[in-house]
Amino acid sequence: MSEKLYHEITPEGFGIAIEKDEDLYSEKSPYQVTDVFHSRAFGNVLTLDGLMMVTERDEFFYHEMIVHIPMLTHSNPENILVIGGGDGGTVRELLKHPSVKHIDMVEIDNIVIEASKKFFKSVSCELDNPKVSVLVQDAIEFIEGKENIYDIVLIDSTDPIGPGEGLFNEKFYNNVKRALKKGGIVTPQTEGPFAQSENMRKTYALLRKVFKNVAPYCGPMPTYPGGYWSWGFCSDDVEIPTDYTKIDEKRAQEIAKTCKIYNRELHSAVFAVPNFVKELANG
Ligand code: SAM
User: Fold this and answer.
1) Mutation test of ligand 1: which of 16, 56, 146, 158 has the most ligand atoms closer than 8 Å to its C-beta?
2) Which terminus of the chain, N or C, has fewer Cβ atoms within 10 Å?
């Protein structure tokens, strides 16, 4: 492979290749290696231990999906927890919602935050917003003992390996549930349905043990393995939003104006998933 080529081969044995113009940054933390390079196809690209994390050009596919489906399903989301999310894209999308009073973002690796502030200004642009507390610590420890605080919890994590492994287990999901207020919603990123089907199957088997209402929603994500991604909608009190006419039209339209993906019709359409995804999620 030309050294001018970034390639990711996932444990599943396939991945992605992107032509590199220039290596911009590389730092090792106790948790992972953060690399940033520039590409003509995707602008700046950030990888963690060589695995694709975020690109300037396609990050909106992921960040709009993980945020606006739970946020616009909830009647008045004020207090939000973001687990991981060090690039800041999830926080940026959350702050489009006027109901938001406070966001805790718990990211284990400060290097990811610093690299994003330096090389992904359009993604990290709201990390210094006064409504945001950036807490650099392990979310597994942070969530212990939290009760009845958050309206929405977004688990914007890496894959279930390394520091992210402990974010995909029953104890952690029970701790997250305890931290929710009544009417709360949890949305984890739940991996690639085609590329990481076993990860997804295991994740939903655990989510179904913890939450009453659990459903995947899916969408394209060009630079992630298989180009197709999933997120989970989990709640004990809120039904899966399969009827967009029940989503507040004015709120949805205000958000849709600022988005490249999200709109009110798509809000319920994303839950119409292929049969193989239903099987992965329903066990
Ligand atoms: N938002 C990006 C995207 O477009 O998909 C990818 C997710 S974000 C970069 C994943 C973050 O989860 C990483 O910054 C990683 O450091 C963080 N993370 C992994 N394990 C963690 C843990 N146990 N506690 C807190 N953050 C963690």
Assistant:
1) 158
2) N
**Domains: count for the chain:** 2
Q: What is the CATH number of the domain that holds 261?
A: 3.40.50.150
| Residues 91, 22 within the same domain | no
Which residue puts its alpha carbon closest to atom 20 of ligand 1? 164
Asked if residue 245 has pLDDT above 70, the reply is yes
pLDDT digits (tens, 9 = 90+) for 109-144: 999 999 999 999 999 999 999 999 999 999 999 999
Domain coverage including residue 49: 5-55
pLDDT at 1: 46
* Whether the CB of 193 sits within 6 Å of ligand 1: no
User: Is residue 57 predicted with pLDDT exceeding 50?
Assistant: yes
Shared-domain flag, residues 38 and 141: no
On whether both 49 and 86 belong to a single domain, the answer is no
Say if ligand 1 is within 6 A of residue 54 CB: yes
Amino acid identity for residue 24 in this structure: L
Query: Which residue among 35, 109, 151, 156 is the active-site one?
Result: 156
Same domain, 81 and 221: yes
pTM: 0.97
pLDDT tens-digit readout, 70-84: 999 999 999 999 999
Determine how β-strand 102-107 pairs with β-strand 79-84. Answer: parallel
Can 156 be counted among the known catalytic residues? yes
Cβ–ligand 1 contact at 58 (below 6 Å): no
Tell me the CA distances in angstroms from 195 to 9, 13, 108, 204, one per residue in order: 11, 9, 26, 16
Q: Are residues 31 and 104 in the same domain?
A: no
Q: Is pLDDT at 15 greater than 90 in this prediction?
A: no
Residues 6+ apart with CB under 8 A from 197: 276, 280
Instruction: Say how many Å lie between the CA of residue 46 and the centre of ligand 1.
Output: 12
